[in-house]
């Protein structure tokens, strides 16, 4: 994320350079905010069971199931919060869901 | 040619709003400010303004709608009093920290409890730390003039903070006095268009306002917001100078009345300043050197200038129309006394809580305060600094 002068906003930025009111000058900036470490439960993708029905990707509240050329890929663990909705919706047992060991 | 008229304070502010013709006005009625949105919605219904009037379901919603519309790039006004301002409290902070220059007409009324609809300053004093510019007005003329100037001050690029323009409920808001209005086109030219650098409806950019701020950034944003408030003094004087050129009416950070050679003085806010000026004239005729400092800008608080104006005075009574329950005096007392602390030779300073819940303050009450100050000067002792005026013992 940058200020209007194009300077990157990092924890080193001074009060003079930070954006007034915290205004965000770009779209899609939620991508910069990594929420993966909020997780206590973690889904595991099992491609061998997956039929690529793609029921899981649209129900993910955090866009953490990337889809490329009509096929889902492994989870985006930088943003997956471990809510388990994808695990509930999968009809083929292609997603495991268990306590995350850290 | 200026327009001479007879108006109440509420009518005067409603007319200032009409002349400026804002984009949006969300408001909820509450005594004694109700007439402002009432008159204004008539202007809307009559097609005299282009404003979108939003009849909201509460003051919390009124301020929320103000934030949304000002953030979208629309010049937005509202009006409230008392518990209405208290219900806005949470959103007042969102408006100021998001740097949205909303202008609010505050018609000062006591806060409940016990329930009371009459004037004191406990409502706006309760919002004094919300990051809003606060400008106080002695009479209908000042309420009108200050509202027009407040829009310019708030929207100045070095400021970008919301402003509330305060006047005393009923005493000023409902009493009809002579007033000089400025022609519509002159007001429009003076205030100009609201042209923020960034706003939500700007077609060629996408922004988000009011996001979550982590501990890494919050204090930097607060320092930046505080610095904007520091800038207000210079901007207010610049706007006042331009206003004086247009109208001949002079405004400063505060007003002094016969203070230059005074031995004793009052510091006071809003309509009671008029009562005090009358008492001063009586006492001056008796040869007493008495004076007055009337607060105009309370936020920001012009502490150096106030200390400079009061430094020669022997004893000062700071008049609070608001109890702060600090057990040490009201909010104005704390500010004035703190401002005087940096002086090498400090005037003796006492506090009076007065006029709460609409208790009448007469010239004789003010004269009694000056008599008390005489006793302090003669004895050289301030005595109890936390006093009440006109309370039954």
From TrEMBL, chain A:
Residues 41-70, 71-100 form the 4Fe-4S ferredoxin-type domain. Gene3D superfamilies: 3.30.70.20. InterPro entries: 4Fe4S_Fe-S-bd (IPR017896), 4Fe4S_Fe_S_CS (IPR017900), PorD_KorD (IPR011898). It comes from the Bacteria. Its cofactor is [4Fe-4S] cluster. Keywords: 4Fe-4S, Iron, Iron-sulfur, Metal-binding, Repeat. PANTHER family: PYRUVATE SYNTHASE SUBUNIT PORD. This is 4Fe-4S binding protein. It comes from Fusibacter ferrireducens.
From TrEMBL, chain B:
It comes from the Bacteria. The keyword Flavoprotein does not apply. Residues 16-239 form the Pyruvate flavodoxin/ferredoxin oxidoreductase pyrimidine binding domain. The keyword Oxidoreductase applies. Keywords: Oxidoreductase, Pyruvate. Residues 262-366 form the Pyruvate:ferredoxin oxidoreductase core domain. Belongs to the pyruvate:ferredoxin/flavodoxin oxidoreductase family. PANTHER family: PYRUVATE-FLAVODOXIN OXIDOREDUCTASE-RELATED (PTHR32154:SF0). This is Pyruvate ferredoxin oxidoreductase. The lineage of its organism: Bacteria, Bacillati, Bacillota, Clostridia, Eubacteriales.
């Amino acid at each position: 994320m940058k200020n209007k002068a194009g300077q990157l906003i990092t924890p080193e930025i001074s009060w003079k350079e930070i954006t007034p009111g915290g205004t965000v000058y770009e779209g899609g900036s939620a991508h910069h905010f990594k929420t993966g470490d909020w997780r206590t439960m973690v889904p595991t993708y099992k491609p061998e069971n997956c039929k690529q029905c793609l029921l899981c990707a649209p129900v993910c509240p955090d866009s953490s199931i990337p889809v490329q050329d009509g096929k889902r890929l492994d989870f985006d663990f930088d943003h997956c919060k471990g809510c388990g909705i994808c695990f509930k919706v999968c009809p083929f047992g292609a997603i495991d869901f268990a306590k995350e060991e850290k | 040619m200026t327009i001479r008229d007879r108006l109440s304070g509420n009518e005067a502010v409603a007319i200032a709003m009409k002349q400026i013709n804002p984009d949006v006005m969300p408001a909820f009625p509450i005594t004694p400010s109700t007439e402002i949105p009432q008159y204004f919605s008539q202007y809307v219904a009559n097609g005299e303004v282009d404003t979108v009037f939003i009849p909201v379901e509460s003051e919390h919603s009124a301020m929320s709608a103000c934030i949304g519309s000002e953030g979208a790039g629309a010049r937005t006004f509202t009006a409230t009093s008392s518990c209405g301002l208290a219900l806005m409290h949470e959103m007042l902070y969102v408006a100021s920290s998001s740097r949205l220059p909303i202008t609010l007409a505050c018609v000062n009324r006591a806060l409940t409890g016990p329930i009371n609809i009459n004037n004191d300053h406990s409502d706006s004093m309760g919002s004094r730390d919300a990051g809003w510019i606060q400008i106080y007005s002695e009479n209908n003329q000042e309420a009108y003039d200050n509202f027009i100037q407040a829009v310019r001050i708030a929207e100045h690029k070095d400021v970008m903070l919301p402003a509330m323009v305060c006047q005393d409920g009923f005493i000023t808001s409902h009493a009809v006095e002579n007033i000089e209005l400025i022609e519509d086109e002159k007001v429009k030219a003076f205030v100009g268009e609201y042209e923020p650098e960034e706003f939500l409806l700007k077609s060629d950019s996408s922004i988000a306002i009011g996001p979550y701020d982590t501990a890494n950034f919050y204090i930097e944003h607060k320092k930046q917001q505080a610095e904007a408030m520091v800038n207000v003094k210079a901007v207010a004087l610049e706007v006042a100078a331009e206003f004086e050129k247009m109208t001949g009416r002079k405004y400063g950070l505060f007003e002094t009345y016969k203070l230059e050679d005074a031995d004793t003085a009052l510091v006071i806010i809003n309509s009671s300043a008029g009562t005090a000026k009358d008492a001063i004239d009586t006492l001056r005729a008796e040869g007493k050197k008495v004076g007055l400092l009337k607060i105009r800008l309370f936020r920001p608080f012009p502490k150096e200038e106030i200390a400079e104006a009061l430094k020669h005075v022997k004893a000062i009574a700071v008049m609070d129309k608001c109890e702060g329950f600090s057990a040490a005096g009201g909010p104005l007392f704390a500010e004035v006394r703190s401002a005087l602390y940096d002086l090498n030779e400090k005037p003796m300073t006492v506090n009076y809580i007065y006029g709460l819940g609409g208790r009448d303050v007469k010239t004789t009450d003010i004269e009694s305060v000056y008599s008390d100050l005489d006793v302090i000067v003669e004895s050289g002792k301030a005595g109890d600094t936390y006093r009440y005026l006109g309370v039954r013992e």
